[in-house]
Amino acid sequence: MSEPVAPLEPARVAPARVEHPRAAPLRVVVADDSVLLREGLVRVLGEAGVDIVGSYGDADQLLAHLAQTAPDLAVLDVRMPPTFRDEGVRAAIEARRRRPGLGILLLSQYVEVAYAQELLASGSGGVGYLLKDRVASLAELDDAITRIAAGGTVLDPEVVAQLIGRRTDPIARLTPREREVLALMGEGRTNAAISAALFIGTGAVEKNVTSIFQKFGLDDSGNDHRRVLAVLAWLQR
Q1: What is the pLDDT of residue 231?
Q2: Which of 66, 136, 177, 188 has the fewest CB atoms lying closer than 10 Å?
Q3: What whole-number distance in Å separates Cα of residue 52 and Cα of residue 26?
Q4: For the residues 62-90, what does the mean pLDDT come to?
């Protein structure tokens, strides 16, 4: 006679853990003279898994505490006290001088192409320029800071459109499809992302990218970040 078999206990399944894709939280400082917007940024960035190590009402405070906070990325309003002109841009340039490799995300109420060009002039990457309306979307903001922290370039589509609009002669040689691809390249999108956005194959995207560089007299390095900088460098000549 076989021995009785003890009833099996229900299997215990450990609850799933949701982890942020980053290896470690980004250390971020925020500077904006608007208390409402500044606190909103702190909350939204916190929800994105970011470690806010400093929050300031003007650019001078951000710079004064830069060594102490040791951030990976700084989010700054373009216009802040005392003149409300380009304090954010000036602070961003100085912050990168003091802390090479610091990611910079500038926010503006309006498209100010001159400030975008000044930020991008160094060509070192890890920079972004977005309209403030973008901060309303957690996904958009999280994507932007992730790409900037990785050394990428993130530009608002409106900024890209105005940068492109400033140089009409060579762009007039582009086909309508090539213009669409160029605009998405300027936003820092990969070939795969452009393919998905335009509903075309990656091979077609690569063909358009190659054609764009040929018409601009630029070599295609095959690196998404470098090609964005090349296009921007051409636009700023």
Answers
A1: 64
A2: 136
A3: 8
A4: 92
